[in-house]
């Protein structure tokens, strides 16, 4: 039963990876792409005014070069996962190690999320480990690793918030506002109690963190 569960998890991860490749999408988040485009805003304006020289100017910026490097990484990863089954063992291992090093670098630079990175790492496991039982074990260990990391990040965030005087001030206000709202006999503006509470808490967050 346990082995079946592990194999199901591996199959689901594999399906997600295959869908990403077949649809031409890849695990670079839209928010990161938007941030890159925003960072190259000046060059983008030049491109609109003069498409020929503007594009070259945009690609020559640090943001443009990073974008090109990510696109190259994306293309290399797609080609590897597409061709892995047809490569010889030595070539497959060489390309897998090169891709692994790039994944590590992007993850350490916080340019790939944990979910994006895990999807790529699952693909590497599938491409380089022929034994299905071994694949399942490695995927399980990988999932546990990222669960542990997520728990550590959550704990660090909680501890950081506990030391933040603005957060503490908001929590005190939150308790007061919730108590006042729950005690009200009539909610103004024709709002529901929940909507009125949401608006008051939002206003208080904006006041404290402005």
Quick summary:
The chain is mostly helical. 83% of the residues lie in helices and 0% in strands. The N and C termini lie far apart (54 Å).
List low-confidence stretches. Answer: 1-44
The assigned structural class equals mainly alpha
Alpha plus pi helix count: 10
Q: Largest sheet, if any?
A: none
The residue fraction in helices comes out at over 70%
Structure, described:
The chain has 210 residues and is mainly alpha-helical. It has ten helices and no strands. It has helices spanning 2-22, 30-39, 41-49, 51-60, 62-83, 89-108, 114-128, 132-162, 165-183, 193-209. Helix 6 packs antiparallel against helix 7 (114-128) and helix 9 (165-183) packs antiparallel against helix 10. The longest helix has 31 residues, at 132-162. It is elongated and about 75 Å long.
Which structural traits does this protein have?
single chain, 210 residues, mainly alpha, 10 helices, disordered N terminus
Question: Topology of this protein?
Answer:
Layout: H1 2-22, H2 30-39, H3 41-49, H4 51-60, H5 62-83, H6 89-108, H7 114-128, H8 132-162, H9 165-183, H10 193-209
Helix pairs in contact: 1-7, 1-8, 2-5, 3-4, 5-6, 6-7, 7-8, 9-10
């Amino acid at each position: 039963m346990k082995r079946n569960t592990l194999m199901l998890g591996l199959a689901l991860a594999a399906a997600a990876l295959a869908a990403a490749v077949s649809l031409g999408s890849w695990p670079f988040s839209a928010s990161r792409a938007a941030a890159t485009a925003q960072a190259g805003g000046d060059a983008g304006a030049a491109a609109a005014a003069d498409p020929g020289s503007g594009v070259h100017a945009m690609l020559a910026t640090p943001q443009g070069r990073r974008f090109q490097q990510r696109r190259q990484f994306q293309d290399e990863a797609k080609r590897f996962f597409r061709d892995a089954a047809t490569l010889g063992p030595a070539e497959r291992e060489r390309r897998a190690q090169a891709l692994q090093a790039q994944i590590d670098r992007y993850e350490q630079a916080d340019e790939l999320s944990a979910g994006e990175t895990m999807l790529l790492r699952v693909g590497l496991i599938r491409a380089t480990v022929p034994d299905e039982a071994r694949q399942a074990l490695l995927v399980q260990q990988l999932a546990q690793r990222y669960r542990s990391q997520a728990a550590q990040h959550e704990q660090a965030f909680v501890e950081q918030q506990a030391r933040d005087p603005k957060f503490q001030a908001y929590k005190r206000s939150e308790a007061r506002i919730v108590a006042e709202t729950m005690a009200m006999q009539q909610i103004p503006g024709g709002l529901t109690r929940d909507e009125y509470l949401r608006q008051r808490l939002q206003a208080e967050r904006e006041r404290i963190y402005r």
